[in-house]
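Marked as duplicate of an earlier ticket. Keeping the data here for the record.
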Amino acid sequence: MQDMKREICKKLTAACLVLLMSIPLLGCEGLSPKETAATPVPTAVPTEAPTAEPTPETVLEHVQLSTSEPTETPALPDTPEPTPVSTPRQNGPEPTPFSIVWMSDTQNLSRHYPEVFNGMRDWILNEQEAQNIVFFVHTGDVVDGCSQFMWDNASIALLPLLYRIPGMIVSGNHDISSEMKQKLFYERPYAMMTRKEGQFFQNGECAYQTFTAGGDEFLVFGLGYRMNSPNLWKWVSSAVKAHPDAVILFVTHEGLQQDNTYSGQTKELLKHIVRNTPGAKMLLCGHYDGILRHEEWIDDDKDGESDRCFYTLMFNVQDDVEEGLGYMRILTFYPADRHIEVKTYSPWFDRWDYPKAQPEENRFILENAY
């Protein structure tokens, strides 16, 4: 009997030992907390690299493919869908009327309303054939300061134009630094595209372009903001002499004061070039708000009677964000009678004539003007 009790006690002890040994094994799997993944070490959010300034190729790709919403753009009414771009017709043996399109002071558009700027671009390209547009000018203040996003907006608006239509763009006071460094402007792709080898002064502060239309050669000078030196006028004079039969047009930013008198640069231009150059016909400018026209009658043969009129036209209504957005001018040349018709149009409003201007300011004809 005693032997039997001892045997039972041994078995119970062994069973207890087995049970006690199993408890830690179960606890490793079922009683300890579940293992969690290690928390990653926070890393700094990468910042975008500075955006490279658009090239003509990247801008064209953006214009065709981009669907991103414009930044810093107040809500404005929708623009009409653009129509397909067509190729301009060529002037035939008989002189055909042709047009120059003129933008001025788009700084407000580059900063706040790039879609208005782009709409102006689209209209010009779409109307290139219908209006027989052969040249494009911009009289400065393309942007509202030396900021990359405005340079980008301007490039997107202007480079596709310059790919299709030759043009002249000059610096305004808002395009250059406070130190009056013209170089900042003339390094922009849209300015560089209007500067051809051998046809610009110094770093590009003055340049000229030529084109032929209606049976005439045209020589278009672009004068940088307040550029004025004896060497500059010598350079312009030499270019004029190289094109003795050309119709000469000038493009600058500040040409007239608000009281319709000449700026300092324009006074020097008339003194050194215009008054002794029968082919000099017109100056286009902006800068001050409003619409002005100045006529300078010149006696070329010194017989006491005027032989030609040198016209200076100023146009700038872009600060009127309620009714002035997108307005530009179309100058149509009629070779048969040598008249120039000046019209005013906004693709944004799809409206001819700026409503705050007088009828004679919106549309007029310059007779025997070239």
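See parent ticket for discussion. Residues 8-54, 61-88 have pLDDT under 50 and may be disordered.
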